[in-house]
Amino acid sequence: MATPLRLQKYLAKCGIASRRKSEEFIAQGRVKVDGQIITSMGTLITPGKQTVHFDNKEVQASEELIYILLNKPKGYVTTLSDPQGRPIVTSLLQGIGQRVFPVGRLDLDTEGALILTNDGNLAQSIQHPSNEVNKTYEAEVRGHPGKNTVRQLEKGILLENKQTAPATIRIQKRKKKTSVMIITIHEGRKRQVKKMFQAVSHPVISLKRLAYGRLTLDGLASGKYKILTQNELKRIFSNKLLYKQKNS
Ligand code: URA
After folding, report:
1. Read out DSSP for 33-80?
2. Ligand 1 centre from 209 Cα, in Å?
3. I want to staple 186 with a disulfide (CB 3.0 to 4.6 A). Which of 81, 132, 215, 238 is the partner?
């Protein structure tokens, strides 16, 4: 007989979302077991014995694991549905049979690298703070942040009563009224890059995620995706920086 496993683990295994995100779905009352809404995390599921519904659709153990890198265009939401009817990223994945979910989020007006998968364990590894997976962004910001400001951001600043973890920043280009900055962070707080630059009075004008670890878009056009190989997946966990600093 199949071994029982916790509901959130089962949802992750079935490709609904990472374990952490699945816990949120459970707490939100979006998950039913044998027709009953379950909001406690301790519930055990024996695959094949109970029926589980997420958002009123039956959850099926997913087939093949798949890993996708999408170059998300601006104007797409990274949720799986949108009450406001805005375009959703998964609509760009024509030809992918499996149900996949985005690993983390990008704002509506942020573009760039977005991993989608049905592997809840990989999603969990990428997002778990202890793994410190680097995310590198190109941010065009208003004005010209000085060296002290850059150092301050790199060391960590207080955001919503919590210090940000060390970051790496390179000033890529100074334009007349703006600067193009490359920033690498390993935290994943909501709108973190925008909030960090906002906090030092250099608001972000446009934002693009260039890479997870050393997995870059590598010529992938906006709106296009590719299926990742095992070697490409390993690059996500590389802690080598994409760019060296050149601020001093
Ligand atoms: N940081 C932000 O501010 N926005 C994103 O979309 C991603 C990281």
Report:
1. ETTEE---TT-EE-TTTS-EEETTEE-----S--EEEEEEPTT-BSSS
2. 8
3. 132
Q: Dig out the tokens for 111 from the structure.
A: 């573009």
50 or 182: which leads in pLDDT:
182
pLDDT for residue 1 is more than 60: no
Above 70 in pLDDT, residue 2?
Answer: no
Q: Going along the chain, which residue ranges are E strands?
A: 5-6, 31-33, 36-37, 44-45, 52-54, 57-58, 67-72, 101-102, 110-117, 135-142, 158-159, 162-163, 168-174, 178-185, 204-212, 215-216, 225-227
CA–CA separation, 241 vs 236, rounded Å?
11
* Ordered structural domains, the chain, with CATH: 5-58 (3.10.290.10), 67-128+218-236 (3.30.70.580), 135-212 (3.30.70.1560)
Percent of the chain scored above 70 by pLDDT?
97
Tell whether ligand 1 has an atom less than 6 A from the beta carbon of residue 140: no
Q: What is the pLDDT of residues 52-82, one digit of tens each?
A: 999 999 887 766 889 999 999 999 999 988 9
Residue nearest to atom 7 of ligand 1 (CA): 106
CA distance 33 to 235: 38
